[in-house]
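Thread: DUF370 domain-containing protein, structure

OP (GT): Posting the sequence first so everyone is looking at the same thing. Length is 98 residues per the record. Can we get the structure tokens written out before standup tomorrow? I want them in the notebook alongside the other entries.
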Amino acid sequence: MFVHLGGDVVVCTKDIIAILDIESTLKSKHSKDFLNICEEEGFVNRVTDEEPRSFVVMERIEGKPYKGRAIRKVVVYYSPISALTLQKRAKFITHRKV
């Protein structure tokens, strides 16, 4: 299954590690440090020029496996779409009728 993150970016749900809300996550020093390191290392991609409301942490397999091991790369996408909406699109949250 695929999830539209905004703009013209669509990702595979099996590659998603986490979908997090920017505002609540940036209250943590460790989260800020993580995102700063990702920026410095070039792992961050902005979906659009709009103010990000969430970010998606992914692990992608790139290139051909080396000695039977896949080459994995962490990618972070800043999305203008709320984390809750993205989680619903990815079916991480299901609707229940009570």
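GT: Both are above now. Quick notes for whoever picks this up: Residues 2-89 form one domain. The mean pLDDT is 89.
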